[in-house]
Amino acid sequence: MGLHLSVIILALFPTVLSIYKYIIYPAFLSPLSRIPNAHRTSSISPLWILYKRWKYQDPPAVHAAHLQKGNAISINCVKDGVNIVYAPNFDKSGWYSPLENYGVQSMVSMLAGGPHSIRKRMLSHFYSKSYLLSSPFLSSITSTLVHTRFLHQLTTFASSQSPLDIIPVVLAFTIDMNTSYQFGIAGGTKYMQNEEERNKFVEFYRMRMSCVFWRQELPELTKWMERFGLRVVKRRYDDGHRQLEKIFLRLCDRTAVTYESLTNRKPSSRPVDKLDGGVKEEDYPLVYAQLRSSIETLDSKATGLIPQQTERQRLEIACELFDLLIAGFDTSTITLKWLMYNLCQHPDIQEKLITELRSMDEPLLVSTSSGSTSFPSPKTLDSLPHLEAIILETLRLHPAAPGTLPRLVPQGGATLGGYDNIPTGTRVSAQAYSLHRNADVFLDPEAWKPERWLDAGPEMQMWFWAFGSGGRMCVGKSFAFYRK
């Protein structure tokens, strides 16, 4: 009888232990158990939020939970305090690792703050507002792209009286703008003029993004299933990402030839197509040159060798610039899409904007006969209150990145939203979707009202979070405003 009872106890022990570990402790004893749950199952399972993320429904679902249960909620991660969570001591979680390209890390995929800060310093000057507003180089690029490509395409369609889907044109413009700033006009893409190449790029990009959920949220399960031939991520989606990498690496390699000729470097032995003709000012690969020079100098100091590009440096440069493109073109297209939509819904606001733009000393006029390529100065555009208000309100109501930006609680735990002892390693985050809908700050938050920004106080600015905050906020924030 005693032996029989011992066998029963041994058999039940793993079950009892599992019930304690996965149900009783997280639901009733964990420090996180004091935080209201976004869903009744959130304390014991992430399935609810995983489903919402898989269906791209997580920002409104999390926001609804905030409205019902308060500023801090538990969904198997904790939502709270922007100033705390996005401080330097909260490192990124592994959620960012699948955003690597070419097998190396960019600023986005770097988890620790130190390497990120070093890389950010390499580029921050050329993406700062002060530089962008006073750069003749960028003004030249902008004028060329707007007049010879964007407006030319619009006037062509207008004269033919053919219907035009403006979204692909805007998307092509944002890609061309990004790559032209990185590689110069001649070295950048020409997707406004080459619809076939643009469509290929967009198709590969959508393939890449369609598999991000599995790589970010369930990386170990995804890898385990693939070992047994069970692919939740279709092989063609991975192939699409590799095709994107190839397209961008060709841009980098072609630009390397120009850079090496300008700096009297030994030409690369890689077989690439050289750019035609001499290098004009607008063709200088400004961002590429800055990043390459900085990376080579940093490695030279570490090794004591003469700066010379290695294969790893080649991939690091491609990875970083590729990430800047990916982070910039889709988000800008989303914002401009909503901006145009809301202007169409509010003709009175549209008329105010037109009047303001025409009042400039150098208004942007479309002329099919004069051949004028004049363009308002960036500082003039930056000073237009209605234009700024329209952009800010569009970013508030329709942030291109509305969801979670995860961080990890550091050693020693944290206090968030009045809840003490949040354990080390807990995934925590905030989301722009909810911050931008604080009804105490933004009255009637679901309405598009640009006029609210004409006399905005510091509190509205504090709650505006379209580009994140802290040392790892979006380095391209000012460039994004410039494009819009």
From TrEMBL:
Keyword RNA-binding applies: no
Binding site for heme: 474
Cofactors named for this entry: heme
Keywords on record: Heme, Iron, Metal-binding, Monooxygenase, Oxidoreductase
Coiled-coil stretches: none
Domain of life: Eukaryota
GO molecular function: heme binding; iron ion binding; monooxygenase activity; oxidoreductase activity, acting on paired donors, with incorporation or reduction of molecular oxygen
Any matching Pfam family: p450
UniProt xrefs under SUPFAM superfamilies: Cytochrome P450
PROSITE patterns with a match to the protein in the record: CYTOCHROME_P450
Listed InterPro entries: Cyt_P450, Cyt_P450_CS, Cyt_P450_E_grp-I, Cyt_P450_sf, Cytochrome_P450_monoxygenase
PANTHER family linked: CYTOCHROME P450 (PTHR24305), CYTOCHROME P450 12A4, MITOCHONDRIAL-RELATED (PTHR24305:SF166)
Record family assignment: Belongs to the cytochrome P450 family.
Protein name stated in the entry: Putative cytochrome P450 monooxygenase
Species of provenance: Zopfia rhizophila CBS 207.26
